[in-house]
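Minutes, project check-in

Agenda point 3 was the complex the collaborators sent over. CS summarized: two entities, 642 residues total, and the question is how they sit relative to each other. Sequences were read into the notes so everyone works from the same version.
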Amino acid sequence: MEKEIIELFRRHLRLQGDLPLGDDAGALRLRDGWLVATNDMLVRKTDVPGVMTPEQVGFKAVTMNVSDVAAMGARPVGFLFSLGVPRDIGMDYLEGVAKGIGKALEHYGVPVLSADTNEADDLVIDGIALGRTRRLLTRSGARPGDLVCVTGDIGRALAGLLAWKHELDVPAGARRALYEKLLEPRARVKEGIELSELANAAIDISDGLSKELHLLAEMSGVRIDIEAQELPIRDEVRAVGEILGLNPIEIALASGEEFELVFTLPEEKLRCLGVRCTVIGRVLKGTGVYITTDEKRQEMPVLGWEHLNRRVKGTYREMFR
Amino acid sequence: MEKEIIELFRRHLRLQGDLPLGDDAGALRLRDGWLVATNDMLVRKTDVPGVMTPEQVGFKAVTMNVSDVAAMGARPVGFLFSLGVPRDIGMDYLEGVAKGIGKALEHYGVPVLSADTNEADDLVIDGIALGRTRRLLTRSGARPGDLVCVTGDIGRALAGLLAWKHELDVPAGARRALYEKLLEPRARVKEGIELSELANAAIDISDGLSKELHLLAEMSGVRIDIEAQELPIRDEVRAVGEILGLNPIEIALASGEEFELVFTLPEEKLRCLGVRCTVIGRVLKGTGVYITTDEKRQEMPVLGWEHLNRRVKGTYREMFR
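CS then shared the predicted structure for the full assembly.
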């Protein structure tokens, strides 16, 4: 349904900014660079796992928007938000959300410019972030020959969600590592700013690495080849995969809201880069996304966490029957 | 409850923009002027009268934000929105909203920079508008000696709502005039831009003239005196007042979402002003807002439409019993 709605709106929104819709953020030219702007709505019922504290909810509402600004290579300069508040919500919950938003703004050094509150049926936080940059980093700039890199590690957000949903018995240390990424992910702001001068293209991981790579390849008009064994997957993710009978690579590819940055850049620029990252593949001429596992190259499926979760349910039931 | 929530959030949001929270929009300094940013959430259940078409809903979601930009004296340069969409909404309804947003963006000449959609319990449209101006028009700039002016006419939005809610039997021409303002209000963009060079302070009428005047007086640290007989109230509003036994001046003071601009400026600048407006009063030293009716001066009550509507119900029932 979401795709249909987006299509519907695109047909009626002819007037667009200085960058077509479809990137991490929209953009307007300023005299000395670009203003980027992005918004992302968080709905408690559908977007917030029950294990998340109100403070973590508030922090994440900021992070998800700041991350989109970072993916454009921009420095976040302002945050706005609208709250839809159900009549029966506790003031304690709201205070937690407020604290979380406040902490996040201090963490990222971003001022709040405007806020609005309304009565609504469910808790809704619509966050908006503004950013500025001299050079814009888009999803369409990947060039054949570029390396494909990713910051941090991937998979922990989904592995944490699965561990929580299926009440897995994982050691406390591992749970902490997984929940850190599920509940308190951080946007890669410094990295995005550093990348803006060096990278050719970037995107943040909101919907899972596989979806983001397909977007990058499609919007840049290139082919992307990924080496499965290079993916930065931590042992805690592998452990959850083992318990649930899931391939950890699939978990890593499907894991959303990681807020790591995926970017491409010419090989010779890698030396100049002060960003800690892992090279996971290469950009080629052509189309599509491929992944090499055990010397077998195959098309990378577009994996979503819902899809994986459905499969888990079957496996899980079998395992514990 | 709204006030409590706002208080709660203010306590936790220490990092603010280059203008403190509490104006029509937030603002950031650019090299050559100001960037203003504002957001306003529309929730169907609480904000949309049943008589409004989906296209009018979409248009209004843009207008209410563009109006805040205009009140800062800024030219709107970008629009963003997030949609919360209930599962059971008709695609026809959504298409109407999309059309309305598209038409509004063309009407105001504003590009869409970013859009997001999510599942939610009720239809929610959170709109965000960005604007630019060389000189910022705030709520705190009114100076003793200034004239107080308002664009257009006031009262039709509330009179229209009352006529619809209470199924009043008003002539077609009058209903058209009332519904025009209730269902298809327009933001005063040209006027705002023109005012930015001349006026000392401005605010748009979102919550009713009386509330806006109290905000202006309070934030500017001045007293405001209004002449009731100067208020630009059309005959259609007076007619509704007569049927319902309400004072048309009260209707005009309580009528929200008019999107007219209230502004103050030095008397000698009135001649230079290309904006059609009505002088309704004067700024003085002191505090508070006063209104003179029939040579009697009294404090102006803070009137909201809910308050007036409650009173109407009684009157109305008596009239038609």
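Noted in discussion: DSSP finds eleven helices and twelve strands in chain B.
Follow-up: revisit at the next meeting once the mutant set is ready.
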